[in-house]
Amino acid sequence: MKRAYLGIDVSKGYADFTMIDEQKNVLEEDFQLDDTQGGHRKLLEILHGLKEKHQITQIYAALESTGGYENNWLTLLKEVDDLDIHVARLNPYGIKHDIQAKMQRTITDSVSARHIAEYILRYPDKVNYQEDAYNLFDSLKSQYNYITTLVKQKTQLLNQLEKHIYSVFPELLAYCKDDIPNWVVYLLSEFPTAAEVREASKEQISRVNYISENKARKIKNKAEKSVSRINDQVIQNLVKHIASDIILRAESIGKLKKQLEKQAGKDKLVRLLCSFQGIGAYSAVGILIEIEDISRFPSSKKISSYFGLHPIYKKSGDGTICVGMSKKGSAEIRGILYMVARSAIVYNPHIKQLYERHKSRGLKTGQVIGILMHKILRIIYGMLKNNTPYDPGYDLASQEKSISQNKNQNYDKKRLRYSDWDEDAPISKRQAKKRKEQNTAPNSSDKRT
């Protein structure tokens, strides 16, 4: 059985290809094809010719995830039946660091294609050739990403509006300490300055969305006492336009979210994640898009590390320096898990109990939420790995089991395996204290045998 490895470096509108054998010999020098029907036909023609020429029985191909430019090539190779070809989508992070480890200085598209081919040859355990579950969410991902773009645009417009509020009606900022409420945006879309509000009647103000008669009276009073005297037509039009844009984006976001939740609600994995109080359909889609295929991660530690939720620390000699959350990998899923954790604190009794327990130890709110994000991701991993709905009882039983296993492990297994501590060793005060604690640990003498 002769295998060949095809590395594909994808660019916008074209791709570079390099094929090597199991001894890293180049079977076909770098060639470039356009992402067109003619380019696709030519690729299949070249692969059939190489298979016959070199008596290849299996072809392993891989390309990096490039935000969608790779989809056409990926789909083409997956649909080929007569080449016995296995194709995988790779995380660019692994390829990048593999190239850095080789100290490769000059990087071109052809060099990248060669590195991709060598990567899948050297690290077969890092490559997933299974059916790409990620494709099941391709359409949902496009909609999800568009919603994310609209949310970012809305946030930018809100920041712009806040700057102008200070000039046109600064007294409204008392209501905007955490965020700009909807009624302020709707008010400014109708009456963009304090002068406009002064000229309006209370009945006109109360007809604005989210504003009651009582609130209209307070707004009117604040406008009468406002320090702003701006009544410039250009500023009025600008503020009104920004507020109207925010409203339009908010309406679009709401409609698209409802559509996405309706479509995603049919998927069994989305329904599975929604069994956790705190995860909605929208968040579930975002999480599944980021995870792609749970089989990529052999353990909960691996997935936590992959998304940068694991704590990082430096341990050397006597000391351990805790740095905090790693924050490596995708920031998107950390943002989703942050909102899930905030929601779970309110609606999930188990998570709420964990929150209160950590807070009672003196940790800050941000620190506790970080811990809960890590915890929730591990719960999600267990749900997807075992294909079982959320069960807080299972998690509590796992905690008790872990506590009982670690109760008597306050000792250095690697050291006591061969030698006891020497009292004459010139150690530091901190190390002496550590050894004393380990010596007095329950059943510590049993561990030395």
Structure description:
The protein has 449 residues and is α/β, with parallel strands linked by helices. It folds into four domains: 127 residues, YqgF/RNase H-like domain (Nucleotidyltransferase, domain 5, 2-Layer Sandwich); 120 residues, Helix Hairpins (Orthogonal Bundle); 126 residues, no CATH class; 35 residues, no CATH class. It has 20 helices and seven strands. Strand 2 and strand 3 form a beta hairpin. Helix 14 crosses helix 16. The chain is globular. The C terminus is likely disordered.
How would you briefly describe this protein structure?
It is built from 20 helices and seven strands. The protein is α/β, with parallel strands linked by helices.
Could you give the order of strands across the largest sheet?
Answer: 3-2-1-4-5
Beta-strand segment tally: 7
Give the domain tally. Answer: 4
CATH topology of the largest domain: Nucleotidyltransferase, domain 5
CATH architecture of the largest domain: 2-Layer Sandwich
Shape: globular
The CATH class of the largest domain is identified as Alpha Beta
Uncertain runs: 445-449
As a whole number of angstroms, the C-alpha radius of gyration is 30 Å
CATH homology superfamily of the largest domain: YqgF/RNase H-like domain
Strand content: 5-15%
Secondary-structure class = alpha/beta
Question: What structural keywords apply?
Answer:
Nucleotidyltransferase, domain 5; disordered C terminus; 449 residues; Helix Hairpins; single chain; 4 domains; 20 helices; 5-stranded mixed β-sheet; alpha/beta
Topology:
Layout lengths: L2 E9 L2 E8 L4 E9 L2 H18 L3 E7 L6 H8 L6 E6 L1 H10 L7 H14 L15 H31 L13 H9 L3 H6 L2 H5 L6 H12 L8 H32 L3 H6 L7 H11 L8 H7 L4 E6 L2 E7 L5 H17 L1 H12 L4 H22 L5 H15 L6 H4 L12 H11 L4 H4 L2
Parallel strand pairs: 1-4, 4-5
Antiparallel strand pairs: 1-2, 2-3, 6-7
Helix pairs in contact: 5-10, 5-12, 6-10, 12-14, 13-16, 14-15, 14-16, 15-16
